[in-house]
Amino acid sequence: METLTGDEARVAEVADVEWPKPWSSDAANDGLSTFTDPHEAGPDFLIHGEYVGKVGGELDIAAQVIAGGDGKFEGVLYGGGMPGAG
């Protein structure tokens, strides 16, 4: 398993999990279903994504919502907006 760095490491540390890189053989053999058609992915796919807005009409805020399946989700909040948004 590869060592995570930067934001990936901080998220993994907070969640107390070790995540494989998406391109690793561990991820490819995890036994989970993979979908290429959003209609087949299920209702969680509709919520999974990135959201941006303002708090109090002034402070930029963003969230990344990751569907875990069976109605379970993880989220990461960013004060100041999405990383890389400038």
Outline the structure in words.
- With 86 residues, the protein is α+β, with helices and mostly antiparallel strands.
- It has 2 domains: 1-32, no CATH class; 41-86, no CATH class.
- Helix content is 21%, strand content 30%.
- It has helices spanning 6-15, 25-28, 44-47; strands spanning 49-55, 59-69, 72-79.
- It has a 3-stranded antiparallel β-sheet.
- A hairpin with a 2-residue loop joins strand 2 (59-69) and strand 3 (72-79).
- The longest helix has 10 residues, at 6-15.
- The termini are far apart.
Global Rg: 15 Å
Count of discrete domains: 2
Number of helices: 3
pLDDT averaged over residues: 77
Instruction: Classify the beta-strand content into a percent band.
Output: 25-35%
Biggest sheet record: 3 strands, antiparallel
From the helix content, strand content and strand pairing, which structural class follows? Answer: alpha+beta
Secondary structure: number of strands: 3
Helicity range: 10-25%
Q: Distance between the terminal alpha carbons, to the nearest Å?
A: 32 Å
**Major sheet: arrangement of strands:** 1-2-3
Question: What letter string, H or E per element, gives the SSE order?
Answer: HHHEEE
Which of globular, elongated, flat, extended, rod-shaped describes the shape? elongated
Q: Which runs of at least 5 residues are low in confidence (pLDDT < 50)?
A: none
